[in-house]
C-alpha cells in the first residue's frame, strides 16, 4: 500500500506540474514579454562586444568577446529574477494567489510550479544566448563535458535566484516594486567580473567584485568553457568552481523554505 508521505509527495508533484503548465501557457499567450526578455541580453552582447570591445584589454591576453560571453550568460540568469518577481507579485496583487490558496492542493505546489516554469524559460534564454555567442565568434575550448558543467552552474544560479525572487514577491506583493528590484540587480551585476577584471577596479571595489556570487559563476564558467579569465591570487579567484556551487546552494537553502513558509502564511 502507498504510504501517506508517498501520497503527499505524489500529489505535490502532480499539483506542481499543473501549475508549471499554467505558467508556460501564459508565456505562449503573451509572447512579447518573453521575446523582449530573450532579446535584451543579445542587445547587450552586441553593444559591449562591438561598441566597447575594441577598448577593452583582457588580462593575460585573449579576445574580449570570449571574455565577455560567460559574463553575459550569468547576467542573463540574474536578469531573470525580475520576470519571476513580476509574475508572482502580479498573481498576488490580482487575487489569483488567494484563489489558489482555497483549492485542495499541496501548499508548496504554487511556488514549485513557478520555479519549474521559470527554470524552463531560463534554459530557453540560455540557449538563445549560446547561439548568439557562436554567431559573434565565441566558442568553448575545453570539451563538451566541461561546457555542460558550466551550463549546469548557470542554471543552478538561476534556480537560486528564482527562489529569492519568489520570496521577495510574496513579501511585497506589488508588481510595480520591480523597479526597486532592478535598482538592486543592476549594481550587483556591474560590480562583478562579468564585464571587466576586478584588478582594474579600486581595491575595496575589487574585493566586493571578487566575492560577488555572480562573479563566482562567471569565473567558473570561463574556466570550464576554456575562455580567457582574469586570474587572481585570492581565495575567491582560486576556488571559483566551488564557490559557484556553494553560493547558489546557500541561497536555495535559505529562500526555498522561506518562500514555502511565506506562501502558507499569506492572508494571516
What does the model show?
The protein is mainly α. Helix 2 (31-52) runs antiparallel to helix 3 (64-93), helix 3 packs antiparallel against helix 5 (109-135) and helix 9 crosses helix 11 (240-265). The protein contains eleven helices and no strands. It is elongated, with a radius of gyration of 20 Å. The mean pLDDT is 84. Helices cover 76% and strands 0% of the residues.
Key structural traits:
268 residues; mainly alpha; 11 helices; 76% helix
Report low-confidence residues grouped into runs of 5 or more. none
Shape: elongated
What structural category do the secondary elements indicate?
mainly alpha
Average pLDDT metric: 84
Strand content: under 5%
| Helix-residue proportion | over 70%
Radius of gyration: 20 Å
The biggest sheet amounts to: none
Provide the succession of SSEs. Answer: HHHHHHHHHHH
Walk me through the topology.
Blueprint: H1 4-29, H2 31-52, H3 64-93, H4 96-101, H5 109-135, H6 144-172, H7 178-190, H8 203-210, H9 213-225, H10 235-238, H11 240-265
Helix pairs in contact: 1-5, 2-3, 2-5, 3-5, 3-6, 3-7, 3-9, 5-6, 6-9, 6-11, 9-11
How would you summarize what this structure contains?
With 268 residues, the chain is mainly alpha-helical. 76% of the residues lie in helices and 0% in strands. It contains 11 helices and no strands.
